[in-house]
Design goal:
Chain lengths: 295, 426, 285
């Protein structure tokens, strides 16, 4: 009876969240995975089973692989750019290395507050041939014909994008790391300082290990965010020129909504989810290894 | 006593419900999906058109949703899939709307049109697919390729209209030395180059016959004519006629730059007149000429040709009956009819399909007049590629043209790729 | 150790401090410059924006704003955005705190499965569910309604909220709950009287993240809404960036209108964001 009561209270508490989630997220995901094995004609609402044909199609498409390459670049920038940067800045603020830390904190986080569509439009205007960035570089280099041709390059077009990504997302990681830094028990630090440890040693031996969990968490967030990345590039380049700044989410959008090939679109999104899960497992594996090594 | 009251109330209810029905019969609601960018100058003409319709037919209520670009097509497809198409919507004579026709989701308009067919130019009311008329086009055709020329700048530079491509290339250095763009084209969106220039080039270099043949397979994309067309585009970039910035220019940038005098030439669709008129004074408009690409050595097509598409118009969803169908047809015919056509001609220079006398309109803006004159001078209109080719091949053409411009692929290489994709699609 | 190029430790310390200041100042400039540029550009007439992109306006005009609001119907859309943000955020906080409490403190074998299902939600892109959801919502008749949008916004924000909430509640000592139970309190009372008051910090964090997400959400609103009564502000702003758009002045004004509310919200609440993370340092991955 006691158990029954507990179970029914449990259900009462989780029911609102679970039912909304089930209806809006779970069922569509499952039907989307199912769609990926079919050829779906939206006009007739008719799905014909085609097995793995859609997957074979995308694996043969060089644009798919190039988009994935771009996604990995985004992941790289996120995990090895935004996270260390966010961590570093958070640490500096935590150590009160600058006055007005509240202001600077706000400045780094501010871009997160703006809708990514607005950010995308804003930066595409700034980088455009008639925008401010080329204008500034023109006056610096004294070359009146300069324009951002780097955005045309197959290899390097992602660089300006990487810059904007850092601009937007570093703030989140700063906040997360700062919050966790502030929650570290100050007694431990004091004790170490009394023992004569330098700042560097405290950082490496105490602070970082305390934050392993957070580093893992932020890496997971970064990876999943990178794989989902869509709004920013949709507004900035639309994946162009040609497909040089395409991403998997954009590729999926193009297949599903411009070519009405929903089967293929669903296949791409299934691949994306699968990739996320693999990478997340990888990150947790690495963390376990590091912990057992360092302990 | 109560019994009488009861019957009295019953009769009252009966009578009032009938009269409510009768009055309700009067008002019909029409759901519409319209293709319109509300921030564009065309929006004002649209508002006036809707107002005129409401005045003429006060018992029809229009529930309008405006959309444009990919969002429009995607919305329409999703609505189709959910079985919830709007009553009337803007449709294309082929291309993106083809799927709707193939799946029998749109009503044939010939029965409604009936004898009124003769009020419109013949090419407009020709069958669109499967022998049926699915949308009533508002204009005879829309040229996707127009060479806008700012004659004042040309004269200031000591140049004159080029008659051949070689002459155009020779002008390039003079123009760039003056700090201007030789030719303005907003090529950030991949379709612009293909629609607004490349199609016309193919029509000029290879000719309409070739285009018809390559669709059926009698000709191939690896034929010399097509490769030459690709090579010409590459040449335009290599010689600096199209500077590398072109690929970074957003579609909206071109008219803005053109009106601020940054180039003597702009290549764009004829619909750009609508964007240019509010930004130029009447005198400035007098300096602008509309023409087509100069002659190219060895061209098989006719000199002075351009590429164009049949126009869009409204159509109605299949299965409408009674008052709804009646209201839908009233809107469709109104939109293509005399009152709306007049608004469009005076406001934007669109030449109506509806046969009417245009010389009575005097207070028309210079550019509008020139747009009408443009069509009189064009020798022939060839097909725009994305209206007759769909799917993977056209996608390859679009993105391939950008890669060609950046030197990441050769004309021959691109042609071969397109042919492979086309073989698959045929 | 390598040769130190600075002579005294004091100089080293000053140099370091200067470097740090420079880094932060660079960030500040990078953040503020685009926003300031956008702001003053929105007061220029369109042709001036093209001709002199960098310069300050010669005359400050307001017509971009009035036209943007009028043509883009931004006032109606702003009201919708406010409704969506408030209601969705409120529901997310309530639903997620309830679920977090259950996951963290009520033993049940379903918890790992349910909790991980929510976490997978963090990995899902909106596009993946777009079409199936569109079709099913149309069939039920909830597409293009405020209720439909609110339901969707709640669902997509639950994963992060439940994650943050569960971790936070886990850190509350079991002893508190047990002693209350001994005193005869029901789970419900414990939830209201003990858990919720203690969870204020995490609720604020959830509030901020969810409010931001709802206010700025674009893709779903674009696809799912048609009528003016349900369209949100980002959709209205996007309409100024259409393929035929040439009116940059209005577009900039619309962008400024879109950003300002959230910037103000952040200015008010920025200190509270960092308090919503669990005490005790590391988050158990």
């Amino acid at each position: 009876m006691e158990k029954f009561k507990r179970v029914s209270i449990y259900m009462a508490f989780v029911l609102p969240a679970v039912s909304v989630y089930l209806a809006i997220i779970a069922f569509p995901i499952i039907s989307s995975v199912g769609l990926s094995f079919t050829d779906f004609n939206i006009y007739k609402n008719l799905a014909i089973w085609t097995g793995l044909a859609n997957y074979i199609k995308i694996f043969k498409d060089p644009v798919f692989w190039f988009s994935m390459r771009n996604n990995f670049i985004v992941i790289f920038v996120s995990v090895f750019g935004q996270i260390p940067l966010g961590f570093g800045l958070a640490y500096l603020i935590y150590r009160k290395s600058v006055k007005g830390s509240g202001f600077f904190q706000a400045m780094v986080f501010l871009p997160m507050v703006i809708s990514t569509i607005i950010v995308g439009i804003l930066w595409s205007r700034m980088f455009s041939p008639i925008g401010v960035v080329p204008r500034i570089i023109q006056s610096i280099t004294n070359n009146p014909n300069y324009s951002m041709t780097i955005m045309n390059s197959k290899q390097l077009a992602m660089i300006p994008i990487g810059f904007v990504l850092l601009w937007v997302y570093t703030g989140t990681y700063l906040i997360i790391f700062l919050a966790n830094l502030q929650n570290i028990d100050p007694n431990i630090i004091e004790a170490a300082q009394i023992d004569g440890a330098t700042d560097g040693q405290i950082f490496i031996k105490i602070i970082v290990p305390q934050l392993y969990g957070v580093i893992v968490l932020t890496s997971i967030l970064a990876i999943s965010g990178s794989l989902k990345s869509f709004d920013l590039l949709f507004a900035m380049t639309g994946g162009g020129p040609a497909y040089y700044t395409n991403l998997l989410a954009l590729y999926m959008y193009q297949k599903a909504f411009i070519f009405y090939d929903y089967g293929v679109g669903s296949a791409v999104s299934t691949v994306m989810v699968f990739l996320s899960i693999v990478l997340v497992i990888l990150v947790r594996f690495v963390r376990r290894k590091v912990e057992t090594m360092g302990a | 006593m109560f019994k009488r009251l009861f019957y009295f109330v019953l009769v009252l209810v009966f009578v009032s419900s009938i009269s409510v029905c009768v009055f309700a019969q009067g008002k019909v609601e029409l759901k519409m999906l319209n293709y319109l960018d509300i921030t564009s100058p065309e929006a004002k003409v649209w508002d006036a058109t809707v107002e005129a319709f409401n005045t003429k037919y006060p018992n029809i209520t229009l529930t309008i949703e405006n959309s444009f670009g990919d969002a429009y097509h995607q919305k329409l497809a999703a609505l189709a899939g959910a079985g919830d198409l709007p009553d009337v919507m803007i449709l294309w004579p082929g291309g993106r709307s083809l799927e709707l026709y193939k799946n029998e989701l749109i009503e044939d308009l010939y029965p409604f049109l009936g004898a009124d067919k003769d009020k419109y130019t013949p090419s407009a009311v020709a069958p669109q697919y499967d022998g049926k008329l699915y949308e009533l086009p508002i204009t005879a055709g829309s040229a996707c390729h127009v060479l806008y020329v700012n004659t004042k700048i040309l004269n200031d530079l000591g140049l004159s209209m080029p008659a051949t491509y070689e002459e155009l290339v020779a002008m390039g250095p003079t123009i760039s030395d003056a700090g201007l763009y030789p030719i303005l084209m907003a090529n950030k969106a991949a379709w612009v180059m293909q629609s607004c220039l490349f199609s016309a080039l193919v029509g000029r270099i290879a000719g309409q016959d070739w285009i018809d043949k390559v669709i059926t397979g009698e000709a191939s994309f690896t034929d010399q004519e097509f490769v030459d067309s690709l090579a010409l585009v590459k040449n335009m970039y290599d010689t600096g006629l199209l500077p590398p910035q072109s690929i970074q220019l957003e579609y909206g940038d071109a008219p803005n730059l053109f009106v601020t005098g940054r180039s003597p030439f702009m290549i764009d669709g004829d619909w750009r007149v609508g964007a240019l008129t509010p930004l130029l004074t009447a005198e400035e408009q007098a300096d602008i000429e509309l023409t087509v690409f100069p002659d190219i050595a060895g061209q098989k097509g006719k000199s002075g040709s351009t590429a164009g598409v049949a126009s869009t118009g409204f159509g109605m969803k299949a299965g409408l009956t009674g008052d709804k169908a009646d209201a839908a047809w009233k809107w469709i015919s109104f939109f293509a009819g005399p009152e709306a056509s007049e608004l469009r001609f005076v406001g934007e220079g669109i030449i109506p399909n509806y046969i009417m006398d245009l010389s009575v309109y005097e207070d028309v803006l210079p550019l509008v007049v020139k747009r009408a004159a443009f069509y009189a001078e064009v020798s022939t209109i060839t097909s725009v590629l994305d209206a007759v080719i769909t799917g993977d091949p056209i996608n390859l053409i679009n993105s391939g043209l950008q890669q060609l411009a950046l030197g990441d692929i050769t004309p021959e290489g691109l042609a071969a790729k397109i042919e492979t994709a086309m073989k698959f699609a045929r | 150790m390598s040769n130190v190029t600075l002579n005294t430790r004091k100089e080293q310390a000053i140099f370091n401090k200067l470097l740090i200041y420079i880094i932060f100042i660079i960030f500040t400039i990078l953040t503020l410059f685009p926003l300031i540029w956008l702001f003053y550009s929105s007061f220029k007439p369109q042709l001036e924006i093209i001709r002199n992109s960098l310069a300050l306006p010669r005359d400050w005009i307001f017509s971009n704003y009035t036209r943007a609001i009028k043509i883009g119907k931004l006032n109606i859309y702003a009201v919708n955005s406010i409704i969506y943000t408030f209601v969705s955020t409120g529901l997310v906080i309530i639903f997620s705190m309830m679920a977090s409490f259950a996951f963290a403190k009520i033993k049940n074998r379903a918890t790992p499965f349910l909790y991980n299902s929510f976490l997978i939600g963090l990995l899902i892109t909106i596009q993946a569910i777009l079409i199936p959801l569109f079709i099913s919502m149309t069939r039920i008749g909830l597409r293009d309604t405020r209720l439909g949008i609110i339901m969707i916004y709640v669902a997509i924000n639950l994963p992060l909220a439940i994650f943050l909430g569960t971790e936070y509640v886990k850190a509350i000592p079991d002893s508190l709950i047990e002693s209350a139970q001994i005193d005869g309190a029901s789970y419900f009372t414990i939830f209201i009287k003990i858990i919720m008051p203690m969870c204020k910090p995490v609720m604020v964090t959830i509030l901020i993240f969810t409010a931001l997400a709802c206010w700025n959400e674009f893709m779903l609103a674009l696809v799912f809404t048609s009528s003016d009564s349900s369209r949100s502000l980002p959709v209205g702003i996007y309409s100024f960036s259409g393929p035929l758009a040439t009116e940059y002045g209005m577009q900039f004004a619309a962008l400024v209108i879109g950003m300002t509310p959230m910037i103000i919200l952040y200015a008010i609440f920025h200190k509270q964001i960092t308090r919503g993370f669990p005490a005790g340092g590391a988050v158990k991955g």
